[in-house]
Amino acid sequence: MKNNKLKCTTVGALAWVAFCANVAAQSSDALLDKLVQKGILTQQEADDLRKETDKDSSKATAKALSLPSWVTSFKLGGDFRGRYEEHHANNPAISDRDRFRYRLRYGVTAALLDDFEVGFRLASGNPNSTFGGNPVSANTDFSDGASRKFIWVDTAYAKWTPIHNDELKVNATIGKTDNPFNYSPMMFDPDYQPEGAAVQGSYAFNEQHALKLNGAAFVLDEFSAGPNSSHDPFMLGAQLRWESKWTPKLESMLGIGAFDIAGKSNLVPGAAPNVNDGNTRDAAGNLLNNYNPVVGEAYLVYKLDSFPLYKGQFPIKLSGEFMKNKGAATGNEAWNGGLTLGKAGKKGLWDISYQYRRIGPDAWYEEFPDDDFTGFYSAALPGSGFGAGIRGGTNIKGHVAKLNYSLFDSTTFTVTYYLGELINNPSGANSTVHHFMVDLMWKF
Length: 444
Prior knowledge:
This protein has 444 residues and is mainly beta.
């Protein structure tokens, strides 16, 4: 009886701490927003105060949970996304497909003394053959008679930030992490969480100009025995960015990066997850080209003072990327160009964007790009391990349009439309695919 009473008291105390922290956070956010509106605080000053409030709240939570003294703060958080999507191919050989899906992610981040951070995140996802969850998707289909669904380790990492001052910041991360490279989905699917080690650094010359460097080594597979054990495939990459704020209204970025995939002979279907398509292979599935591309990127942002149906300054962003893989003689280029109007993220704000992409068959390793940007293969590529079907990866060109509207600070409504077709089409049949998605996502 006493044990049950103690448990109830403990649970009630924790619930009260969480409730008070939540109420305090909401109240302080509303007050800070009002002070920014009246011009008493700048947006940067308000954001700094929010961070300090969040840190104090995390310390209170850590104390209530009786965490070790070396844990300086503790944060729980995640998101839930519900989705309807449709695939329609302009080819009578394949039927339209409609489905409902969800994505759930939830994790823990603990800040420790001596500038360490440790965290993990769990995520939903359909199983992918014998390899666990899909490496480029955390979506789960509504299917199989309401059967229980899978939860996977999405991230698990440790980070050390030994240098962090107003000018210079350097950190190193090891584990399964969020992708440290800031590229569009032409290069990396947004749900791709690599495994390995990364180093990131930034140096601010002044308030207007900063250099940012990202470098990483990612393991793509591991062999425990046999002739392949000394030739594990992995990826090396580096990205350098020059980010500038020329005026309060004008921003720009120029970047260059280089990547290399080693051990490509072991990246055959069946040895590693085979989700996307597009690379040139022999009949046995061996990749015929190397993948060591150079990537250039740029964007320019200009902010209007106002715009109809939009609160505050209205950003207009032009962006583009170009990639060339010197490891292949043909089909070795990829590029995109796009325009974004507005920026969602706060209640009542929205953005609308358009991008054209063209990803050559051997511009990049097929398993990394956005798997939602697709074309229809009525005949399989040699050695791909697939039959006829709709697939993403490389060897695709087309259009992407997206609308985001923030119903609340925590809730965003999104509509995305992809129109893709194959670049190299072995059958010559119509390969166009219309891919339509409607999302509603809550952050918590």
